Give the backbone structure.
Amino acid sequence: MRYDLVIFDNDGVLVDSESLSNTILAGYLTELGHPTSYEESIRDFMGSAMHRIHELVLERTGRRLPEDFDEVFHGRVFEAFERELRPVTGVTEVLEKLDADGVPYCVGSSGSHERISVGHRKTGLERWFPAGRVFSAQDVGRGKPAPDLFLHAAREMGVAPERCAVVEDSPLGVQAAVAAGMDVYGFTAMTSAEKLTEAGSTVLFGQMAELPGLLQ
């Protein structure tokens, strides 16, 4: 493969969590007096770190979310993960291929370390991603679309940004990868090809089975 490191987003790319978490987020925001549909949650918050949710709600309404918002939200998400979470179809085969080819890979996720850990344990992906391969927006000052997380992951893995490929499914993540100077592969399972292209992705794919061939 022509890359020295493949950086995977987590939610929607490794674990099939976006529909679960955005259904819960839309419901909780509505419950708190900030009416939000599932489609609006996907549009505004998919791929973002928690601080972005707080910032957008404050900007739009002038009201702060409750201090325990993150705790309550994650509690509901983790309960749903335990009931329903599955790995993205075909992703284990992709990881096996990368291992066979000797290509390092890691996670660069807007989610917290706890969220990543819970999801990987539930789906069996934890064996692919030990602690040294997991990087969260918690590790840097700014989440996506800032490039900080991806640059941090590359630095920790000892790889130059231009030798990295990023696999993303959200416009915010694509923007972050482009800003980091990395090639980005847009996964269209949850987001339209048009939106990912507008964000800067030049290579798009709809099935995980396609990815190894694209990375060659």
The chain has ten helices and six strands. The beta strands are 5-8, 105-109, 134-136, 164-168, 183-187, 203-205. The mean pLDDT is 95.
